[in-house]
Specification:
By secondary structure, the chain is of the alpha+beta class. Helix content is 42%, strand content 11%. It has a two-stranded antiparallel ribbon with strand order 1-2. β1 and β2 form a beta hairpin. The protein is globular and about 65 Å long. 14% of the residues are buried. It comes from Staphylococcus equorum. InterPro entries: Transposase_InsH_N. It holds the Pfam family DUF772. This is Transposase InsH N-terminal domain-containing protein.
């Protein structure tokens, strides 16, 4: 007997977005370990600067950057489009099915205003790194950063050696700057000014 499925695409269902994200989904596991609410403390004294400007919750902003790297999509513009239809991404951002995903233009303005020419991004990354190490998500006994092999001193378990780029702590920040500048130029705006590349330097950071 030939079975023909019924088209149920327009059928209404009573279901939460959380029920559609499996318990072992990568973003759910990340959310269980990585609480990003500490970001609010870092920017508490800066919120007054955003009065009457289109603003994105800073935790949402960082989560979007996080999703971009976890999923492996280089283009932020493309990533934002995917979030619109990706249930797991919407869940991770705390969005409902109907919440509007920030437009790339709004994202780029918020990113430029909050991160450019500040060390806020470095502060956030450092806190995330500490949480990851505390939860044994990073094997820092042997690290490879930008093709440089670093071995940890076994006698100093509370310390890791990290390479820090003075002006750009994360490589993808530079990539995002390039993408934002492309958009600004297409709109007849001046590109955001980039700082000169600095040599990497080795320093000790404590992760107790």
């Amino acid at each position: 007997m030939l079975n023909k499925s019924t088209d149920k695409r327009d059928q209404y269902e009573m279901i939460s977005i959380s029920e559609l994200v499996s318990s072992n989904h990568l973003l759910r596991r990340v959310d269980n370990i990585l609480d990003l609410n500490f970001i609010y403390e870092l920017v508490e004294d800066k919120y007054c600067l955003d009065n009457e400007r289109p603003s994105i919750d800073l935790v949402i902003l960082v989560k979007i950057l996080f999703i971009q790297r976890l999923i492996g999509i280089k283009s932020m513009r493309q990533k934002i489009k995917e979030i619109e239809t990706n249930v797991a991404c919407r869940w991770y951002l705390g969005y409902s099915f109907l919440d509007k995903v920030p437009h790339f233009g709004t994202f780029s303005k918020n990113y430029t205003r909050r991160f450019h020419d500040t060390d806020l991004f470095e502060q956030i990354f450092e806190r995330i790194l500490k949480i990851a190490i505390k939860n044994n998500l990073i094997d820092h006994s042997s690290l490879f950063i930008n093709s440089t092999h670093i071995k940890e001193n076994a006698n100093k378990n509370k310390y890791i050696t990290e390479l820090v780029k003075k002006e750009r702590f994360l490589h993808f920040q530079e990539e995002l700057d390039n993408e934002i500048n492309e958009q600004r130029l297409s709109q007849g705006k001046k590109p955001i000014k980039k700082k000169k590349k600095e040599e990497y330097k080795s320093k000790k950071s404590k992760y107790a």
